[in-house]
Amino acid sequence: MTPQSPRAARSTRKHFEDAVRTSPKSVVTTSALWVAGKGGCGTLEILPKEIRQKIYGYAFDISTPITVKKCCGPEATIRERRACRKHGTGATTKASRFNMLQVSKAMSSEALWVVRSQGSLHLEVDRALTQYLGCYRWNGQRQFLTSRLGCKRKMTMWASAGKYRHVEVAICKETLLDGNPVIHTNYLVDIASSLCQSWLQTSSINATAADSDVKRTVKVKLGSLFQDVLPFNTKPYGATSSWELNEWMYRYYLLSNSEPDLDKIAADSGHNLLRLVAVIAKYRGCSQWEIVANTQLHKDDKVGLGWLHVIQAECARHGMCLEDAGSE
């Protein structure tokens, strides 16, 4: 193969630069096209602010709740985060609905206000969310960098979550059957604590009258927690509940020499729910919390019914109420 002449190489390089300059990706990410307007919003600047907010709401589909990303978590390495198709260096505007925020700082500021004030944040107790709970522990010198980056990413995530005015926390039946239910009910306490802590930090940094008047609403959806086999009704009365309990014990206690203490699991889970109510009552401030669960229980769900009455009484003592999910 004959080597390419310097003149031909310069011509090839020029064609490549022209192609990159006029490519669709370059046009989307070039800030010069978007700062032509006075406020940096381009041609949208000629529209009233209220109209622009409606456009942002449709563009980012604020009717769909925002969830925690499942692709690159806080403990992902730098190489893994760069290779992520949605959030990495090669991500495009079509990879995620929020990648369009990169085109302009002015547009990003207005659009984020719409998303956080009119949209909602959905926090499901699952493996994607539990990575952001607690601080990453340092297990050796090689993990020191990952440890610091992991803690910083977790703090950044909760700082961002604290800016949403409408938050929904949920736990489902499948999650309670995945391992120890005590751990999952304790995650509810960690989520409430992290949210309240993020609000306190935000109010201390931006201590203005506008921030103090912000009304936040949080809905905690417990689902069928009081009527399911785990964690409370471990004495099944039907074929379905017996099969669920046997499958759970077979999956997690087959190789164990001891059987699980089901009474302790129920007591610890109920204690976690009491801690949840206590954390909300102590740190909620001006926010409005609502706990929703299925309250139509079977007469044989004696333990679940007992804990339901205990939690209802505790909520009433702190000026809250545990509402039935069927009344939504």
Describe the structure.
With 328 residues, this protein is of the alpha/beta class. It is 49% helix and 8% strand. The protein is built from 13 helices and 5 strands. It has a 5-stranded parallel β-sheet. Helix 13 links the parallel strand 4 and strand 5. The radius of gyration is 25 Å and the shape is globular. The N and C termini lie far apart (74 Å). About 11% of the residues have low confidence.
Pattern of helices and strands: HHHHHEHHEHHHEHHEHE
> What is the general shape?
globular
Helix count, per DSSP?
Answer: 13
**Which structural class fits the helix and strand makeup?**
alpha/beta
Major β-sheet strand ordering: 1-2-3-4-5
How many angstroms separate the termini? Answer: 74 Å
Low-confidence stretches: 12-17, 19-38, 136-146
Percent in helix = 40-55%
Provide the residue-averaged pLDDT.
80
What is the beta-strand fraction?
Answer: 5-15%
What is the number of beta strands? Answer: 5
Oligomer: single chain
CA radius of gyration is 25 Å
Largest sheet: 5 strands, parallel
Q: What attributes characterize this protein structure?
A:
328 residues, alpha/beta, five-stranded parallel beta sheet, 8% strand
Concise summary:
The chain has 328 residues and is α/β, with parallel strands linked by helices.
Secondary structure layout plus pairing:
Elements: H1 6-21, H2 24-29, H3 49-59, H4 78-82, H5 105-118, E1 121-124, H6 127-130, H7 144-161, E2 166-170, H8 173-176, H9 181-205, H10 209-212, E3 217-223, H11 239-253, H12 262-283, E4 288-293, H13 302-317, E5 322-324
Parallel strand pairs: 1-2, 2-3, 3-4, 4-5
